[in-house]
Amino acid sequence: MQDIILASNQNKAKNFLHELEGKNPLFMCTMATTGTAKIPGISAAGQNPEITDYTPAADVELLLLGKCKSIQGVPVTPDGIPTPALATMSALNLANIPALPINAGLVIQPQVPFLELGAKPGKDIRTGKAVSNIDETFSRAKKAGEILSKTTDYIVIGESIPGGTTTALATLLAMGVDAKGKVSSSMPRNPHELRNKIAEEALKKSNIKFGDLKNEPMKAISNVGDPMMPVFAGLVIGATPRIPVLMAGGTQMTAIAAIVKTLEPKSTENVAIATTRWITEDKTSDIKAIVSQIGDIPIVAANLNFGNSRFSGLRAYETGIVKEGVGVGGASIAAILKSNGAINSEKLLAELEKNYAQIMNSKQ
Amino acid sequence: MQDIILASNQNKAKNFLHELEGKNPLFMCTMATTGTAKIPGISAAGQNPEITDYTPAADVELLLLGKCKSIQGVPVTPDGIPTPALATMSALNLANIPALPINAGLVIQPQVPFLELGAKPGKDIRTGKAVSNIDETFSRAKKAGEILSKTTDYIVIGESIPGGTTTALATLLAMGVDAKGKVSSSMPRNPHELRNKIAEEALKKSNIKFGDLKNEPMKAISNVGDPMMPVFAGLVIGATPRIPVLMAGGTQMTAIAAIVKTLEPKSTENVAIATTRWITEDKTSDIKAIVSQIGDIPIVAANLNFGNSRFSGLRAYETGIVKEGVGVGGASIAAILKSNGAINSEKLLAELEKNYAQIMNSKQ
Predict the structure, then answer these.
(1) Three-class DSSP category at B131
(2) In 10 A of CB B85, how many CB atoms?
(3) pTM (two decimals)
(4) Which residues does B58 contact at the CB level (< 8 Å), separation at least 6?
(5) Can you tell me the ipTM of this complex?
(6) Separation between Cα atoms, residue B142 and residue B147, nearest integer Å
(7) Which of A141, A160, A290, B28 could connect to A231 by a Cys-Cys bridge, CB 3.0–4.6 Å?
(8) Do B112 and A140 touch (CB under 8 A)?
(9) A201-240: per-residue pLDDT in tens?
(10) Nearest residue in A to B93, CA atom
(11) Across the interface, do A109 and B99 touch by the CB < 8 Å criterion?
(12) Hey, which residues 100-119 in chain B have their CB within 8 Å of chain A?
């Protein structure tokens, strides 16, 4: 299909996508916060670290209402580049794909309908006590995945959790996946050094060495992960016995893949990681190298390119800022597949520009 | 279709049901509590008035898990007769229909996934300030109805709100619908006198006379209604432009019908009230007489009969206890329709008895 890049396991990826052509998906967006995002220099999902608590709520409000309620305007990076939720919203609207937000542990709850699973916000991983109540939220998420798998042809699950690649790094290391220098970043200059330092501090505080928790993903999450992880993994494990799941995100998805693979290996046979070209072509990270350590999971990428946009705030995406988030790659791929290719990258950008002009110019 | 009674508007009801045969529905259960249920003698949805706060949570836990988590055993009437959720669960399981609970204003939240809309528990209607935050929860519920209408062929919406027929009575009176002596009860002896007295007290406290709020349903709810109403009405109004909705319940559904009819008349063209034979044949209430004052809305009823059950706790349903709740009539009808009649009343009872034996005998 035009404008979907088969980034790895090309045959498997092709077959996987073929099954989804013309089908009706449900887009779900897991939302969570973690104290880890408050560390300066870690997250660009908000103008400053303190406001990252509001970013997930604002992102899903944008998806459902076309405007934010919890903040003025829309979430932006410290450089003023707008949230990828704008592009996710554009793709979902264009293809008429329903979106359902999931509270995976929030400080600020969105002012739109969302699925509640009892998840609590995550703590700074350097406490060694990052996530509480994991078994319960995992089991509720699994049940939710089961229920929703009866209502749709396939599920696309995205995430909005500032600081999520740092918690992913620490979790991957605890589980023995060599991800140092390989996770992606929402910043143009990938802060590997800072992130490695934080992940190492977190592991040390928990008395965990590389690979110690290879077979204990729940303990890894509890110590150095984030609350999105048990929810996302539960949704995948609940839904995959019946329908395929597109895990929509950047290198954070490799941590989910590692968790799912350990808890329920069969589930990984019915998933693909769906991301963007900005991730698969990123020179500062290496999603394929991480996934290859975990299993035979296809990676597909939306061939988005904002280089010719009339808006500098969108052209900036080509400089390596943002790259992924709010399932933008997966939502774009789902829109292309649902329309049997009638929607392509060009149409996605046109719709995004239309919405960008309308939303960024209105003073709310 | 065998075992579905066309209780009114027979031609319209028949056509409505015909559209749903063999289709895949989503069952939703609105859950709410109101201080009104704490008035002694008002609700049989719990062993005593205080425990009614736990009934909605326990009901949906039973639907999703096959057992309750928030209470020991299952909700029972003061006489020990078990919740209709047992029969709803049996119907949904038999027909493999997914169920999604909705928080429409709870004191106790269930330990299963549910949709959150920001609704707060209701107050005793005699305060004249029964429900807060109505516009916001209505608008979120409408959005949820829109979203979910894209994922399913039709929606069946039930309710678990102890005391709900009393708040329905007061709301109907405020809106000028003569429902005195016509609303149903979960008790064998319908406490019309007590309920009329409470409704009158509530109207008086709010300075409302019969029909004063004919065109102001939101004010009627705010003063003398319950928090389930704006959520239920919002779901109906959000979903009906795209798909049909079965409003599953007893005379409470007439209040929803009156609210929807006033807010969005067109929506009532795509709904039917789905209930049980125990309601449509009830000599102590008159659902048809209420609906005929509101509009041309078909009433259909599941021809459930537990008279030959081997369990006295189920035979008791034939004495007029319980009658409706947790959308049991609508869930049964949906099971019959989905299976094109392969599931009938006999099979529903057999499945219920199997679950009854298992759940009522296990000491949880």
Answers:
(1) coil
(2) 27
(3) 0.97
(4) B68, B69, B70, B71, B74, B75, B83, B85, B110
(5) 0.96
(6) 9
(7) A141
(8) yes
(9) 999 999 999 999 999 999 999 999 999 999 999 999 999 9
(10) A147
(11) no
(12) 100, 103, 109, 111-118
